[in-house]
């Protein structure tokens, strides 16, 4: 009986040992499978990864600010325009802003800057420029090297044509990924999104109605997203730009660039 018990004990110990060894092997294989699958897509080393390789992370100041709006007690608002420049509508926007002495921030597409440099050359005094990628690809689908190369190419084009290297980034579609954050940090950008968007499709043929909608929804520190290229429906917002400006001024608002708005911001009070 004792002999049988010892036999069962040896078999139980052997079974447990095999389970442990098998578990380690399965765990190792699973880890290797995960790394092999995700090394380039979409996690480690891919769009989701906010680090680059195993060496030193060369990321400028080592920090990145992401802004949707700016906390301020002052009635300040920043108009921003994406995707240009283009000869169809960018001059119209610049003419309207000049007429009303309103500064704005233009998030420029590098390829468009190269193609239509004459549209903005010598016309951006008082305005601000930001980087909106080289060709409006979704940067959140690129890996860290691709995202950086795209933004660097656009950065250089904007600096060459305008004479002012951009310090702000707005990624296409507002899409963020680790690779975008890493590339932005390398370029020492502030990453600027928006807190209110022009909604032209909701006001077809009604520029005044669209302007009233924007005016009613602005709050101190709002960053407004508009476009100076794109589908023809966007003309609803651009044709109502004068009404928008006048309406906001009647509410006591002052127009500033995004950087000026950031400079006027105050530290937010933590909620209790």
UniProtKB/TrEMBL annotation:
GO terms for molecular function: hydrolase activity, acting on carbon-nitrogen (but not peptide) bonds. Residues 75-256 form the NodB homology domain. It comes from the Bacteria. One of its GO terms (biological process) is carbohydrate metabolic process. InterPro entries: Glyco_hydro/deAcase_b/a-brl, NODB_dom, Polysacc_deacetylase_ArnD. Pfam families: Polysacc_deac_1. PANTHER family: 4-DEOXY-4-FORMAMIDO-L-ARABINOSE-PHOSPHOUNDECAPRENOL DEFORMYLASE ARND-RELATED (PTHR10587:SF137), GLYCOSYL TRANSFERASE-RELATED (PTHR10587). This is Peptidoglycan/xylan/chitin deacetylase (PgdA/CDA1 family). It comes from Micromonospora jinlongensis.
